[in-house]
């Protein structure tokens, strides 16, 4: 990673502060950007998210799914966490903390929307940033690639039903047309476009050409990520400044969720005798979220100023520093983890 990528936490923090301040002092400008919609999709957010995720999806080789058998235990643990644990545990944590423990400190009319945002966040396994996390914990690149490819394939068909099920259980009305539009716009279309572009680059220029394109597009993807953060925190700037307690309370179930799911995945992999180079990225993939999709879906379903959008933005706020802390835990516990293999 270059200097820019290594200092990602700093840039994210600066963009969060910049967006919040701009949104607070220039609400009219951000209101105009928020009004730029088509079919309930915010166009500036949609463009930035495409610029963000398509270069990252170019790294995904769906042919890597042929390697699934090599790491079937790690793959199984991650799938279990991503699809059988994380969405449901987040719905439970949201119900417990936001509807009950913290209910007296939250605006009553927004609690359902906050919970919806948490569900949207947890139901989308991370696609892009896990390559960074895996690299930082010296994870097996083939495992990470095959796991991400499989998660992307599953998300195409599973994201909408899982979200709809959990929103229904939380007594939140599901706008199916907007949900399916979001899945098509932010999962199906980018995955197909990235797969076709990857195939074209490989057929015309080979692996060196693909790597050169990834190097050129990498800064574009990160720049789009940072601009998206400025925009999202600008949309929520006044709420963040006026309701810091709300932000802190929403962050509680997200923090618990990250450490619970990463710890569970890590321990299950150790129990099954999985190598540390697989267990590390498995835990990180199990804990992190495809927040770009969650934010875009929340904006499409509930609007840029909704509690759902705010909850997904809180997820963005804590994603990088919290995941870096999980990376540190995974790295520092390597000797303890591998002691079982030596025993």
- Spatial strand order of the main sheet: 1-2
Secondary-structure element pattern, one letter each: HHHEEHHHHHHHHHHHH
Q: What low-confidence regions span 5 or more consecutive residues with pLDDT below 50?
A: none
Structural class: mainly alpha
Largest sheet: 2 strands, antiparallel
Quickly count the helices: 15
Range of strand content: under 5%
What's the shape? globular
- Output mean pLDDT: 84
- Share of helix, binned: over 70%
Distance between the termini: 35 Å
Rg to the nearest angstrom? 19 Å
Number of strands: 2
Structural commentary:
This protein is mainly α. The chain is 80% helix and 1% strand. A two-stranded antiparallel ribbon has the order 1-2. The chain is globular, with a radius of gyration of 19 Å. The two termini are 35 Å apart. The model has no long low-confidence stretch (mean pLDDT 84).
């Amino acid at each position: 990673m270059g200097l820019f990528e290594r200092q990602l936490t700093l840039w994210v923090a600066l963009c969060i502060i910049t967006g919040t301040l701009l949104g607070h002092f220039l609400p009219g400008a951000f209101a105009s950007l928020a009004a730029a919609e088509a079919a309930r999709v915010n166009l500036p957010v949609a463009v930035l998210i495409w610029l963000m995720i398509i270069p990252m999806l170019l790294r995904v080789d769906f042919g890597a799914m042929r390697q699934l058998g090599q790491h079937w235990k790690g793959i199984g643990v991650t799938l279990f966490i991503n699809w059988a644990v994380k969405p449901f545990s987040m719905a439970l944590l949201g119900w417990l903390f936001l509807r009950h423990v913290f209910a007296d400190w939250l605006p009553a009319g927004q609690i359902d929307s906050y919970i919806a945002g948490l569900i949207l966040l947890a139901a989308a396994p991370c696609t892009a940033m896990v390559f960074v996390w895996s690299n930082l914990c010296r994870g097996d690149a083939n495992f990470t690639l095959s796991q991400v490819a499989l998660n992307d394939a599953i998300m195409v068909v599973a994201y909408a039903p899982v979200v709809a099920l959990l929103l229904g259980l939380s007594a939140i009305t599901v706008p199916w047309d907007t949900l399916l539009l979001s899945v098509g716009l932010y999962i199906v279309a980018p995955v197909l476009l990235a797969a076709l572009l990857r195939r074209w680059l490989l057929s015309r220029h080979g692996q060196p050409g693909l790597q050169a394109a990834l190097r050129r597009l990498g800064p574009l993807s990160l720049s789009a990520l940072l601009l998206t953060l400025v925009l999202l925190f600008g949309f929520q700037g006044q709420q963040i400044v006026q309701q810091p307690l709300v932000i802190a309370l929403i962050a509680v179930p997200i923090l618990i969720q990250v450490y619970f799911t990463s710890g569970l995945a890590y321990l299950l992999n150790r129990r099954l005798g999985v190598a540390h180079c697989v267990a590390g990225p498995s835990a990180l993939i199990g804990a992190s979220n495809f927040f770009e999709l969650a934010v875009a879906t929340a904006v499409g379903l509930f609007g840029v100023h909704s509690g759902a959008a705010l909850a997904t933005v809180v997820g963005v706020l804590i994603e990088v520093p919290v995941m870096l802390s999980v990376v540190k835990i995974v790295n520092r516990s390597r000797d303890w983890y591998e002691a079982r293999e030596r025993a």
